[in-house]
């Protein structure tokens, strides 16, 4: 522990010193103050968030190993996205509906970006075959949360310029992080019989990236995602990405980690069939109906998303969302977080993605473990709730499944 914090201290000194020598840039290439700190390392306010990525100052370059419904080249992890996390590991999503797009290809073509588009089709693959869907989702969910590519950060902004910048940078960062090659060089290659230890994979990736890399295993103990964490000096398209240690630790077992071959049909393994079933149910959602209850508190959520203690609980439908995460809906409509930060369901609410842990039943949002409300509702009051612990009454939200809804 001691040596770790000493190391962190030295790194802070190193990066502070480096600040005097490295320049940083706005999205449009004009320069930023030369002493702009690395994201998440500032010790005072930085008002110009066109030069300083905030609040999502941790940038993750994420990759898939889609081996069932094999996706992309056999010898390549494919691009998942470029995600901003907050400095404390929580994150926002779908931050600005006015910037959302519905067709990524159209945007790229309108900017004459055929080459980028072709490259994206090679490396940025949707396992259901609709790459455009994945790109739209990634930009709308994560790209709209980036402060340094807001339209106001550009001098002569053309509508959707920032979308192209987001896609181009996502591909560039991805290309500098060739996971497959790095693993292969360490003797870690796909196999139906060999397995690997956590330490082997950890060392292979850390020795190349220079920092701890997060790798995720699926329910078959097979490697299926890699996340590289960075801080950023300057803007998303022009800035300097500095590797940092992963902020979470791997869920893979210490030994026996599989690295399955990407191949067209699964032959022997039952476990692979299990994954395929879950992938299929994503395409045709099978939702669970149930109540949203508050742990250690009376009452539950009613259909508008508010907390109520003296009535019947609303039935919520919980279903797997297309690109990870879960969606919630009540009879009023889909659920999300409204512009005041409250949980809400109904028309006019933008569907958000929640996380759900089926073993504990906990429903969470944006990496925040719990939820809070301003007060416990009195007899007939409906009290709104927010993700996180910013309000007085803190609790966890539990999805209590009642029955299965088949759509
Ligand atoms: C870092 O900068 C942001 C944006 O200006 C500000 O909100 C935050 O308080 C700053 N952090 C510190 C420790 O001063």
In short:
This protein is α+β, with helices and mostly antiparallel strands and 407 residues long. The protein has 8 helices and 20 strands. Helix 6 packs across helix 7.
How would you characterize the overall build of this protein?
The chain has 8 helices and 20 strands. Residues 5-21 and 265-285 have low confidence and may be disordered. It has 2 domains: 17-274, Alpha-Beta Complex (Ribonuclease Rh, Chain A), CATH 3.90.730.10; 290-401, Trefoil (Acidic Fibroblast Growth Factor, subunit A) (Trefoil), CATH 2.80.10. It is globular, with a radius of gyration of 22 Å. It starts with a helix and ends with a strand. The strands form 5 sheets. Strands 14-13-12-11-8-20-16-15 form an 8-stranded antiparallel sheet, with no helix packed on it. The longest helix is centred in the N-terminal third of the chain and has 18 residues, at 2-19. The protein is α+β, with helices and mostly antiparallel strands and 407 residues long. The chain has helices at residues 2-19, 104-110, 114-123, 131-141, 161-175, 179-185, 198-209, 270-283; strands at 58-64, 78-85, 195-196, 214-217, 223-233, 240-244, 257-258, 286-294, 300-301, 307-308, 316-320, 326-330, 333-337, 343-345, 355-356, 362-364, 371-373, 385-387, 393-395, 397-406. It is 23% helix and 23% strand. Strand 13 and strand 14 form a beta hairpin. Helix 6 packs across helix 7. 2-acetamido-2-deoxy-beta-D-glucopyranose binds next to loops.
**Average of pLDDT:** 88
Radius of gyration: 22 Å
Largest sheet: 8 strands, antiparallel
Number of domains: 2
The low-pLDDT segments are 5-21, 265-285
As a percent range, the share of strand residues is 15-25%
Distance between the termini: 51 Å
Q: Give me the CATH fold name of the largest domain.
A: Ribonuclease Rh, Chain A
Element-by-element helix/strand order = HEEHHHHHEHEEEEHEEEEEEEEEEEEE
CATH superfamily of the largest domain: Ribonuclease T2-like
Strands, total number: 20
Shape: globular
CATH level 1 class label of the largest domain: Alpha Beta
Helix/strand/pairing category:
alpha+beta
Strand numbers in spatial order across the main sheet? 14-13-12-11-8-20-16-15
CATH architecture of the largest domain: Alpha-Beta Complex
Helix content: 10-25%
Count of discrete alpha- or pi-helical segments spanning 4 or more residues: 8
* Bound compounds: 2-acetamido-2-deoxy-beta-D-glucopyranose
Protein name: Ribonuclease T2-like
InterPro entries: Ribonuclease_T2_eukaryotic, RNase_T2-like, RNase_T2-like_sf, RNase_T2_His_AS_1, RNase_T2_His_AS_2, RNaseT2L_C
EC number: 4.6.1.19
Domain RNase T2-like C-terminal: 291-394
């Amino acid at each position: 522990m001691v040596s770790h914090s000493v190391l962190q201290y030295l790194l802070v000194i190193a990066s502070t010193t480096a600040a005097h020598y490295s320049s940083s840039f706005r999205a449009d290439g004009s320069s930023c103050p030369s002493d702009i700190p690395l994201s998440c390392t500032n010790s005072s306010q930085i008002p110009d968030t066109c030069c300083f990525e905030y609040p999502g100052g941790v940038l993750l370059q994420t990759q898939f190993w889609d081996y069932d419904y094999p996706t992309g080249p056999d010898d390549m992890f494919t691009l998942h996205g470029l995600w901003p996390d907050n400095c404390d590991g929580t994150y926002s999503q779908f931050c600005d509906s006015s910037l959302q797009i519905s067709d990524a290809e159209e945007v790229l073509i309108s900017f004459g970006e055929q080459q980028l588009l072709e490259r994206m089709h090679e490396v940025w693959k949707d396992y259901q075959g609709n790459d455009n869907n994945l790109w739209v989702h990634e930009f709308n969910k994560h790209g709209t949360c980036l402060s340094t590519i807001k339209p106001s950060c550009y001098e002569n902004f053309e509508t959707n310029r920032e979308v192209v910048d987001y896609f181009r940078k996502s591909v560039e960062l991805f290309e500098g992080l060739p996971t497959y090659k790095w693993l292969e060089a360490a003797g870690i290659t796909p196999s139906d019989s060999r397995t690997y230890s956590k330490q082997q994979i950890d060392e292979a990736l850390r020795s190349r990236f220079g920092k701890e890399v997060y790798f995720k295993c699926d329910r078959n103990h097979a490697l299926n995602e890699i996340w590289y964490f960075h801080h950023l000096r300057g803007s998303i398209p022009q800035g300097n990405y500095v590797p940092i240690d992963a902020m979470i630790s791997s869920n893979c077992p210490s030994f026996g980690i599989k690295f399955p071959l990407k191949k067209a049909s699964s032959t022997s393994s039952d476990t692979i069939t299990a994954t395929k079933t879950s992938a299929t149910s994503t395409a045709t959602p099978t939702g669970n109906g149930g109540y949203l209850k508050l742990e250690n508190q009376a009452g539950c959520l009613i259909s508008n998303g508010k907390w109520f203690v003296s009535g019947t609980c609303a039935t919520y439908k919980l279903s797997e969302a297309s690109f990870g995460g879960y969606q919630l809906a009540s009879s009023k409509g889909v659920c999300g977080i409204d512009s005041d930060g409250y949980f809400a369901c109904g028309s006019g609410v933008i569907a958000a993605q929640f996380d759900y842990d089926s073993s504990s039943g906990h429903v969470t949002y944006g990496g925040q473990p719990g939820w809070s409300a301003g007060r416990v509702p009195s007899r007939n009051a409906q009290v709104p709730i927010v993700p996180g612990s910013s309000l007085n009454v803190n609790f966890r939200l539990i999805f209590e499944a009642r029955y299965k809804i088949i759509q």
